[in-house]
Write a structure and sequence with these properties.
The protein is mainly beta and about 550 residues long. Helices cover about 10% and strands about 40% of the residues.
């Protein structure tokens, strides 16, 4: 493949050498060796394409050279060379081969011998450096080229193997391959929150001229700023991820790697690359020049880079990167628990954050009581920083703990559902005076299908060995209300929240023999073919109610 390229490019190379030789004449005997060396270097180098971005792969400590010349008749024509390092800093320079002016002079008028000498004078090839640079920034050289000169670009990487992109153009009138940056290319941080940072930047002139072909892309990471999109993509790949170069730019339908997550919303494309070294996020937001970066971690330093991208060529230009540290997450509010006092906590299911309660023991033995009101709740209890209990609770749950006086207990509660949950909490050293009533084995209400009539329903529920008060309530509902009524039922709410017309009766009962601690009740005066929701409330000595599981029963339509 290399040989075929050599023979294919040989006529072009010979033509370029011929142009050079025509302008600088033949070499003298004294300069033949250097001229041969120049030809050797030239033939073992590559031609740099005009008007096209070229990717150049560099091996460590091995220089690589590219040549270019102008067409005949384009003396003093402008040209630009843009080099973009895609990884480590590199060294690069521009050298010019031209005939030495000291060998080309005008003879005095009438001095024929001198004129002959001048005509026959052989001009050697002189190599002069006109530009050199070392670093990893995108650098552009602008100069004036002469058709009598051959230009050489030399690139060298001293750190490791790498690659760069090079763009040469001699046509400065037909627009730019790279989008233009504004006079002030800085990114301004205009807002910082616990999980968000808001950025703004000045519009690229290219966006104002070619809005349909230009867009902004933002890169977010926790390591450092990148001076080019090429460098950023190289860093992402080196961390073990495969990132299609145009994925976040042209919105091409690439398949994502397992380490990538793509989020498309409100015409914004987000690519989140997950690696052991951290998270790199690419967000393309069209032509908006203000953006609030969401879903950041509190108290974390982030680096932000904005690239303006030409969608037709995938060429990009980098704004000056910036960084910001998100605000520290406020310490969760801790509520003090007092002996015997009951508090009800409502937990936000969307945020999934812990609600904290603290208690300083005044006795060696204490008891925590939790009554689940709605949803599902996770309870985590620590004593002096060490975990003593952690579980999901349901119904009524007791934790009896032993320790020392003045031990510090921290209770953390969290909803395990997306919907809100609520729970009642009480701590007490008085085991012999429980605040909540003694509960039966089951809080289910049973209905007897055979005993249903068109206007009555018979239900039953379990009692305890302790004499307690039970109150029955009913509510007429429609078929489409059943699920909502059962899901939204607050098991901690007492009958005080019910309408008086819904009350059916209240009764006391108990039985020493738990096998016989069952009671039944027939509710009359109902409408035929109608759904009813039945609730039973149990009241203990303290008066705190416990609500049985609601029961839905439908009366017979025909009797």
């Amino acid at each position: 493949l290399k040989m075929s390229w050599f023979w294919f490019s040989l006529p072009l190379q010979l033509l370029m050498v011929a142009c050079l030789c025509h302008s600088i004449k033949a070499p003298t005997t004294s300069s033949q060796q250097s001229f041969k060396t120049d030809l050797f270097n030239f033939y073992h180098s590559l031609i740099l394409a005009d008007g096209k971005e070229t990717t150049v792969h560099l091996l460590k400590d091995i220089p690589k050279r590219y040549y270019f010349v102008l067409e005949e008749g384009r003396a003093l024509a402008p040209f630009t060379v843009t080099v973009t390092p895609c990884d480590v800093p590199i060294e690069w320079s521009i050298l010019v081969h031209k005939a030495s002016s000291s060998f080309i002079g005008k003879a005095a008028p009438g001095d024929r011998d001198t004129q002959e000498v001048s005509k026959s004078q052989k001009a050697p090839s002189v190599v002069s450096p006109i530009f050199n640079y070392k670093g990893n920034s995108v650098e552009t050289y602008m100069g004036m080229s002469s058709h009598s000169a051959l230009y050489m670009l030399e690139f060298l990487s001293t750190e490791r193997d790498t690659h760069i992109t090079v763009y040469l153009t001699t046509d400065t009138t037909s627009g730019h391959l790279y989008p233009e940056l504004p006079m002030d290319p800085r990114i301004d941080v205009i807002g910082i929150g616990h999980t968000t940072v808001t950025l703004t930047w000045k519009h690229s002139p290219s966006v104002l001229q070619h809005r349909e072909n230009i867009q902004y892309c933002l890169l977010v990471n926790e390591k450092h700023n990148y001076k080019s999109l090429c460098a950023a993509e190289t860093a992402i790949r080196s961390s073990g991820m495969k990132l299609p170069p145009t994925l976040a730019l042209s919105l091409s339908p690439y398949l994502l790697e397992p380490q990538q997550v793509m989020i498309l919303s409100n015409s914004e494309l987000s690519i989140i690359n997950k690696a052991s070294s951290g998270e790199v996020r690419q967000i393309c937001m069209g032509t908006k020049n203000t953006y609030a970066v969401p879903h950041l971690s509190p108290s974390t330093e982030y680096y932000f880079d904005v690239f303006v991208v030409n969608l037709l060529t995938n060429a990009s230009a980098a704004y000056t990167g910036t960084f910001a540290r998100t605000l520290e997450e406020p310490e969760p509010k801790v509520t003090e628990l007092k002996d015997g006092k009951v508090i009800q906590v409502v937990l936000d299911g969307k945020n999934q954050k812990f609600y904290s309660l603290q208690y300083q023991a005044r006795h060696k033995k204490i008891q925590f009581t939790f009554q689940l009101c709605q949803g599902q709740v996770r309870v985590h209890i620590t004593k002096n920083g060490k975990t003593v209990a952690s579980e999901n609770i349901s119904g009524l749950r007791y934790f009896s703990l032993k320790g020392k006086l003045l031990d510090i207990y921290l209770v953390q509660l969290r909803s395990t559902e997306e919907s809100n949950s609520s729970v009642k909490v009480q701590v007490s050293p008085h085991f012999h005076k429980p605040l909540f009533p003694l509960l039966p084995e089951s809080l289910k209400i049973k209905s007897f299908s055979k005993l249903r009539t068109c206007n009555s329903v018979t239900i039953a529920w379990l009692g305890t060995q302790e004499e307690s008060k039970y109150c029955v309530y009913k509510k007429r509902i429609e078929d489409d209300q059943v699920w909502m009524e059962l899901q939204s039922a607050d098991r901690c709410s007492g009958p005080g929240s019910r309408h008086k017309s819904e009350k059916v009766l209240c009764k006391y009962f108990y039985d020493i023999n738990l096998q016989r601690a069952v009671t039944t009740e027939t509710i009359k005066g109902l409408d035929a073919g109608t759904l009813y929701l039945f609730d039973v409330y149990l009241f203990g000595p303290s008066g705190i109610p416990i609500r049985y599981d609601s029961k839905v029963v439908k009366t017979r339509k025909k009797c």
